[in-house]
Amino acid sequence: MYAAALCAVTAVWLLVGNGRTRRRARGMLSGEVNPSEPRERWGNVRSRIRAGLKGRWEWLCLPVASVLAVLGQSVLPMIAGAAAIPVVRRWLRRRRLRAKREVRADGVVDLCGALVGELRAGHEPGQALVVAVRSTGVMGETAFRVSAAARFGGDVPKALAQAAGEPGLEGLAGVAACWRVAVGSGAGLAAGLDRLESALRAERRQREELRAQLAGAWSTVAVLALLPVLGTGLGAALGADPLRVLFHSPAGLFCLVTGGLLEVCGLLWAARIVRAGEAA
Question: What is the pLDDT of residues 32-63, one digit of tens each?
Fold first, then answer.
């Protein structure tokens, strides 16, 4: 195992470090030294890794499971790694959807601000909405329907209300309500949208403050999740060989299954408590 690790380090040094040393020597002899070259090289390596994965980060479970399988000389980590791929994929998908929803919510705030600016600049409401939608690009595929309704005299509040049904665009329901009231009673559309923008900004500020307050709780959950790994590493450092005990003995297998179930239950419980506080 140590020989394989030494060979891997040597190979990496030959591929990266040795070539870099030769280039730096040539640069020093020619008077052309580029100190940012190592940073650019590692940046290119990271870019190639990300481009190769193309968002499929869940497949990294297999290399990690392979390392554990080699160290523990057991096939159980490979089975666990294969079973973890759909779980990690679902978790990553939820994170991406949540990030996309937050970006859209911030885009609605920018849309209100752009629309107010266009109205106060003297543009007609329909033209102002078309320009604001085009400049912010928050609606995505639904922008065509809203822009068409605003440009050709369609039912703009209905189009906005339909767009508000998508995740992250809930604030467009307020824009539709302001538009409907302004058309029906002749009230100032810019004033209503200005108040709506202030309310949405206050809501976003409150969400950011709540997230900052819950950062400590999420850190505690992460530390609790890493405690078994740290305990296993400490046991290996003391020479107890915990992987062999866990994978090759009945008592170790029982402890592994029981501890894994308790770990999963504890993480789900803690995450539910934190999410409940965030949702409230």
Answer: 445 455 555 555 655 655 555 566 777 888 88
N-to-C CA span, the chain: 51
Instruction: Output the six-digit token pair for 232.
Output: 């296993």
Q: Which residue in this structure is represented by tokens 């009231």?
A: 181
DSSP letters, 148-212, are: HHHHTT--HHHHHHHHTTSTT-TTHHHHHHHHHHHHHH---HHHHHHHHHHHHHHHHHHHHHHHH
8 A C-beta contact, residue 159 and residue 149: yes
Tell me if the pTM is above 0.70: no
**Phi, psi angles (nearest 5°) of residue 10:** -65, -40
Residues 228 and 142: their CA atoms lie apart, in Å, by 48
Task: Report CA 115 to chain centroid distance, whole Å.
Answer: 29
Summarised one tens digit per residue, pLDDT across range 124-168 is: 888 888 888 888 777 666 777 888 888 887 788 888 888 888 888
